[in-house]
Structure to design on (47 residues):
């Protein structure tokens, strides 16, 4: 199992504006080269 962190710009429906987010996923190997990605943390990055 490993963790992958991605930073991305997305539109926040709650805030009604675009925002930058840091998303952390837990990645587990499955079979035949497939992987399971599960979101474990979401953090909004201040501008």
């Amino acid at each position: 199992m490993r963790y992958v962190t991605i930073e991305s710009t997305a539109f926040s429906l709650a805030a009604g504006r675009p925002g930058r987010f840091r998303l952390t996923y837990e990645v587990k190997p499955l079979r035949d080269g497939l992987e399971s990605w599960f979101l474990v943390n979401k953090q909004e990055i201040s501008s």
Q: What stands out?
A: DSSP finds no helices and three strands in the chain.
